[in-house]
Amino acid sequence: MAFVTTCLVFGFLLLGLLGGETMASSNCNFPAIYNFGDSNSDTGGRSASFDALPLPFGETFFGKPSGRFCDGRLVIDFIAEQLGLPYLSAYLDSIGTSFRHGANFAFGGSSIRVGGYSPFHLSIQISQFRQLKARTTDLYGQRQGKARTPSSKWNLPKPEDFSKALYTFDIGQNDLAYGFQHTTEDQVRESIPDMLDQLSDAIQQFCDCCCVVDGGGQTLYEEGARVFWIHNTGPLGCLPYSFIYDQSKPGNLDEGGCVKPENDVAQEFNRQLKDRVTQFRLRLPHAAFTYVDVYSVKYELVSNATKQGFDDPMKFCCGSYYGYHVDCGKTAVVNGTTYGKACSNPRAQVSWDGIHYSEEANRRIADRLLGGQMSDPPVPITQACRKS
Questions:
Q1: Catalytic, out of 77, 201, 353, 358
Q2: Any catalytic annotation for residue 175?
Q3: How confident is the model at residue 145 (pLDDT cuts 50, 70, 90)?
């Protein structure tokens, strides 16, 4: 009897070891990340192209300006950490950059559609990706048969890594925000299908007569992309900026203290986006698509902020919209009052500057997202290559 028991115990231990090995090997081991988005995931594109973001941007984690609209890391940084990869260099940053493990095409203010706050809309970002891939592939082709610096020393991706990489999207918020600023709520709702048509065409055309992204070239799928991690848009109405300018309208706030019309439209965008992702799974069975519910995570964080140790979520750390408008990184003295000085404890704030989240908020958001609990299908990001 003792012998049988010993054998059973040994067997269970062996199965456990083998099972652990199997689980570990089921990770996708992405060699690179290619990210497309706006200021929520911009790691330096806007700063490299226009005036650099000054301190106190970057102060909490990097100890210096890092090109991020935050006091520290963004969700895309936590994604890189989770996958064991370096932080993504901005494609437009020419100093000290490395694209060996991917590139970041996100740009502050970017939208899916042409126009809005930034010239670097999604089709431009896709065009930049195509250029990076084409020029990298060409350079590697020129090196064949020549005694050159080992490819491991290059700051460029390996051509074969493009099809093995993770392609992440976090874009659409600025399309909605710009629409609310310049049109009506109904017009913003009516524009959602066109936004999603253009987002869809960046990945793969949905119809034979569609125009490809910017009128020519390949879609991401045609370029070899096979694993897509797609964030929905966050609760626009929960940003302090939205609250400050829209709270006075009767019945405008929901039970979480957020601007209801803006959040309603964001949820409609997300509903239609999820439908598109479902269609992609049917149309492209050789690709893996993960729809990530950022909205719910951010809304829960804001509506329960004080219970989670944060200050009032409609306050923010840097800059000023109350009394006198001063952008983060600047100060102004008006009638003896200084406006815009950064707070002493950014970790206590959900919002960094009234529009973007603090590093502490981003960390908590990433903790909820990367394990797969808020994803469809519910897989962790390390296993996003699995097809549903």
A1: 353
A2: no
A3: low
Better pLDDT: 337 or 86: 86
Q: Which residues are CB-contacts of 171 (< 8 A; sequence separation ≥ 6)?
A: 36, 37, 38, 106, 110, 111, 112, 122, 199
The answer to whether the beta carbons of residues 317 and 342 sit under 8 Å apart is yes
Contact 214, 126 (CB under 8 A): yes
Write phi, then psi, for 150 (nearest 5 degrees): -55, 145
Q: E-assigned strands of the chain?
A: 33-37, 102-104, 166-170, 227-231, 288-292, 332-334, 337-339, 375-376
C-alpha span between 52 and 21 (Å, rounded): 46
Contact 121, 110 (CB under 8 A): yes
Q: What is the CATH number of domain 30-139+154-308+359-383?
A: 3.40.50
Phi, psi of 166 (to 5 degrees): -100, 130
| pLDDT band at residue 124 under the 50/70/90 scheme | very high
CB 5 within 8 A of CB 13: no
Q: Is 356 a catalytic residue?
A: yes
Going 89 to 93 to 97 to 102, the CA torsion angle's sign is positive
Range with lowest mean pLDDT among 67-71, 120-124, 142-146: 142-146
Give me the pLDDT at residue 142, please. Answer: 84
CB within 8 A of 273, min separation 6: which ones?
Answer: 172, 196, 199, 230, 232, 233, 291
Which DSSP string do the residues of 92-124 spell out, in sequence order? T--SS---TTEEE---TT--SSSSTT-S--HHH
| Catalytic option among 39, 89, 123, 320 | 39
231 given a catalytic annotation: no
Q: Determine which one of 101, 121, 231, 356 is catalytic.
A: 356
Cα 90 to Cα 102: distance, rounded to the nearest angstrom:
9
